[in-house]
Amino acid sequence: MVDSIDYPIIDDIGSIPLPAYAREEDFKEMYWDLYKAVISGANWDELMLHRGFKSTIIRPIIDSFQLKINCGIEIPTYSRHWDMHTPFLFPIENYAIQPYHIDNTKARIIEVDILREYAKHHFEETGIKTQCRVSVTGALELYLKLKGFAVYKDIALNLARSINSFFKKAIYSDRYFETPVIAIDEPSIGIITFNLISDDDIVDILEKESSGLNQEIQIHLHSLAKSEIALNCKNIDVLTCEYASRTDQKIPKKILEKYDKFMRVGITRTNISNLIADQIEVGIPPKHFANDEGLISIIDSKNRIKKRYKEAIKYYGDRLRYVGPDCGLIGWQSHKVVSALLSRTVSAVKELR
Questions:
Q1: pLDDT tens digit sequence for 160-196
Q2: N or C: which terminal CB in the chain sees fewer CB atoms within 10 Å?
Q3: What are phi and psi of 61, to 5 degrees?
Q4: Is 310 left (phi over 0), alpha (psi -120 to 50) or beta?
């Protein structure tokens, strides 16, 4: 478990838009050049100084992570600038030793490697250890992208072995950098029906991808309709849900106590398309949301965030382990807008906590 003076801990789910100076096309093209350099054993000191990598990949990742720290996120997730599938499917498909089972020496989350190098310099300058939450897209979510709803368990287990390798290569604990929390990203569980496998099979898949890990393990869900699957996975410590936009997403506290599990609750809405649609419906013109100020205007008020937080505290009590925004910050256009949303969330929590 994570040691903390104050609970619940403020974290985020991960995704964030690129800084304004970064070009998405260049980032995605050069990302794989850096990935190949890392798995080939290139020296990190040299990679961090490489002009192209530094300006196109490394600086955007560090600046995005630093933004989260500056806003007060206590255990920020590494900067996720991709969709949730490609960073894992591309290496799994290109470096497989069996179908969808990656060579574990090739399973890298280079964002975490970059942040570890950053943490060394940050520690030297400030004496502060950097903590990072590591999120990996789960085997079922990857399977859904690859092959659809009909899940063959042997293939899913190979994907789970790959996910486990990504986690193990991204775990650090030293005086300047620590990854105390990891998260399996499985938003489709409880929303869609997987065919050919049972709930017990899904538990087996979750246990395979989370095996042999000593960190606190979250599972990120969008629906709690199938929460019993996560509750029955012995390795999972914390269930997460998108509560800010769906206040019906709850599990009875007594059930969490029965299974000895905890909750991470989203208290700030991030479903930007719905928020904009609601405003247009009441007469706000679409062009209002074409700039940062327009988007900042639809961020949840501090009072609304506090209300969601107080509801979660009242409902879960000491079983509430983490709070923060719902997922999907990558859609919020700019660092200025994301900074406003994160800062407001942190301020609301700290005023009450």
A1: 999 999 999 999 999 999 999 999 999 999 999 999 9
A2: N
A3: -65, -45
A4: alpha
